[in-house]
Input
Amino acid sequence: MSGHVAIVGTGPAGLAAAIEAARTGARVTLIDEAPREGGQIYRQPAPELDLPPVGLPGELARKAALLAEFGTVREKLELRFQTTAHSLYPGPELQIADATASARLTPDAVILATGVGERAIPFPGWTLPGVLYAGGAQALLKAQGVRAGDRVVISGAGALPLAVGAQMAEAGAEIAALALLHSPVRLLMDPLALWAGRGIVAEGLQYLAKLRRAGVRPQTGWAAIHAHGVDRLEAVTLARIGGDGQPVAGSERHVEADLLLLNYGFTANSELARMAGAEHRYDPAMGGWLPVAARDGATSVAGVYVAGDGAGLRGALVAEAEGRIVGAAAAAHALGGQSVAQGAAEARRARQERFQRALRRTLDLPGGVWNWATEDTTICRCEGITAGRLARAFADGHLTLDGIKRSTRCGMGWCGGRTCLQATAALARAAGGDWPPAEMRARPVARPVPLGALANPADPA
Amino acid sequence: MSAATADVLVIGAGTVGLACAWALLERDPTLDALVLDAGDFACGGSGRNASAFRTLWSRDFNILMSKESLAVFRDAAAVFDYPAGIDLREEGYLILAHDAATMAGFREASATLTRLGVPCELLDPDQTLRRCSGLSGEGLTGALFGPECGTASPFSYLDALLGAVRRMGGRVEFRRPVERLAAESTGYRAETPGGPVSASRVILCTDWAAPELLSPLGIDLPITAQPKEAMVTVPGPRQLDVTLMAPKTGLGVKQLARGNFILSMTLDRPPGSQDGSTPTWLAACARESITLYPALAGLAALRCWGGAISKTPDMQAIMGETERAGLYVAVSAYKGFMLSPAMGRVMAEIVLTGETNHPARALSPARFATGVLESELLTI
Output
C-alpha cells in the first residue's frame, strides 16, 4: 500500500476529507472541475473579480475557517483543478482528464465528495429561457457577481428558496413572489431536531428577516405551475397547492417576472459510485439514487468511499463532519492501519443529521405535483421527450426506467438522466411502475471528456 | 396471468425473436405465439448495437437477407403501422482496406454483390479520400463503398416490432426468464419464474446465451460471446456522411443526423461481464478513432456502453432446426439487428413448412457436425 487517496470534489466534504487524510499521512490527490476549491456552497469568485461575499456572517465564517484550515495542508496535496474525474472502475481505478490530457490513477482509496445537482418539478413553460434553478442563480451571484434577473419569482421546497430569495433581494432584485410548497413550520413537529439544528434555524430566521425587510412575504402552500412567454419568460402563474400536490382550482394568480427560480430538492451526483458497481438505493428526498455506505463512508466496492451530500442530502455541516470521518477512514485503509477515531466529528454529524431528517420533511413531494406537467410539457430536456410521449410508452407497457429510456430515449442525452429520471420514475409510478424504481447503472463517462484528451495520456503524478 | 401454453414459444424478445414472432403471425394469424424475455425491453444486444445496417456481404445468403431486410426497413412505418418510422438513413458504408489481402476480398465480394444487384464500388485510396474528405489516408489501400447501407434506430425498430406482434395477437412477456428447457412427450416444457410453459415448438433467439439452454439438452453448438463496446460523442457540426468501418482495428465510425458520432470497437478482454466497460477501452477507442478521422479529437465523449455479440466458428448465423425435432435456433453472429426481418421470415418458413429454398438453409445447425463451414469475406 502506497497510502494514496484520491478525492473527487472540493466542497465541504472533499476539503475536510483532504485535511484529515493528509494529517493521517496519506498522499492526497484532490480533483475538481472548478478553477478553485469550495464546491457549490463555498464557491469562491475568481480572485481578480473582488466581489462582495454572498451569505450570512455565520455561513461565511464557517467557509473562511474551513478554507483557512485547508490552506495549512494545501502544499502537501496534489491539486488538480479544472479536471474532470470521468470514470471509476473497481480496483479502484479513477480516470481523470483536463482539456488536453488524461490520466489513469490507481490510488488505494477514492473518496467521492461529488455533491448534488438541483431538482425541479416539470410544468408548462419550465424550459423557457429565464427559468433557472435557484442554486444556479446563487452560483452566478457568488462566482461572478451576476444577478440573473430584475423581477424574480422563486418557487420551491425546503430551505434553499429562502436563502436565494434573501440573497437576490440583497443584490437588488425585486422579489415579485416567493412560493414554498410546505411551511417551514413542519420542522416544529420535532422539537429535539429543532434544538439540534438551532444554529441553522437561527440562520433561516435571519434570511426570513432579510426578506421581510425587503418587503417579501413567503407564501407557503403555493407554487409556480405555469411559466409564460414567447421567446423568454414574461409571467408566471402561481397556484395554491393542496395536500395531495394538486393545484387548487380557482386559486391561480398571474405575476409578471423576467426570472423564475426553481428548487424542489436535489439529485445526488452518484454516477461514479454506481459506475464502479457500488450497491445503491433510491430515496427521493435524499437525492434519488444513493450509494449504500457504512458510517465510515465505505461502499460495497473495496476502496471506494463516499462523503457529503452525494452520499445522501444532509447539508454542508454534515458534509464537513462526514468528510473528516471518511477522510481518516480512507487514509487508514490506504495506509493499511487503524483509523483514528473522529469523536468530535461523529458527534457533530449525528446532531446535524437529526436536524436534517426533520428538515427533509419540507422536501416531501406529494404525488400530485407530477401532474403539473401537461401532455406537451418537456420532461427530458436533452432529448425533448414530453409527458405525452412518456404516457404513450407507459400505455405500451414500458414501465421500468430502462424500458422507458430505450423506447423513448428519455434520459439518454447530455445530462445522463440527472435532470429527468426522478420525474420520469414518479410519472411511471403513477402509471403502475415499480416503486422504488430499480437500480440505475451509470456508464463511463460521468461528464463529457474531449477525445483528444482521452487519447493523450499524461503521466499520473 | 402468466401464459402456460403456446403453439410456438420464442425465447428472447430482441430483434431476432420479435421478427420471428412477427413473421410467424404474418404467415399464420391463428398461431398462438408467446415470446419470453429474461430482461427488459431492448436490454440485450438489440438495444446495445451501434445502429448500423449494411448490404455489403460476400455470400448469397447474407446479401439476399440484407436486401430483403432493407426493403422492410424502408417501409417500416407502413409494415409495422409505426408512423414515427425508424430513422432510416441510407448514407452509405465505406469499408476500408489497409492491406492487399483485404482489398482482394473486396474485389471478390463486389463481383457477388453486383451479380445479386446490390450496388457497390471498389475505390482506390484517392477515390476513397474524395468520398470521405476528413478521413486519414495513412496506410490506406482502398475501400468498398455501398450506398444502400447506413443507420436506423434499433430502439424504434424494436418498439415497432413489439407493437406489431402484440397487435397481431402475439404475447410478449418481459422479465420472465426461461431457466430450463426440457423435452416432453410432445414438444417442450420451459421452466420460468411465472410457472412452466408447454409448447410444441420452441425457437431459441437468445444469441450468445443460447448454449445455456441447449447444453442441458445435449445439443452442443459452437456459440460464444465476444464483448463489444461503443461510445457516443456530444453533437458536432455535420461532416461525416458515410459510415466508416476499418476491419484492421475493428473500429466503426458514424455520425448521426443530430450530429453525435458513434464509435464502436472490439477490444480483446477476458470473458466475464458482457455489458461492462473496460478501463483501457476509452483511451484505445479515442486513439484509433482520431487516427482514422482526425477531426474527432475536438469532440467530447458523452457516454460509453457495452454489450456482447454472438460468435460462431465461421461468423455466420445459425438458423434452423436442431437435432431435436421442434427445437429451433436463430442466432445471428453479429448481424441480428440488420438481418432480423429476413431471418424472421426464413425461420417462420422453416418452422411452419419444415423447409426453405432460401440459400440461408446452408446456415443450419447441422453444418457443424459435417465440418463444412461457411466463410464470409466481409466480417468486421
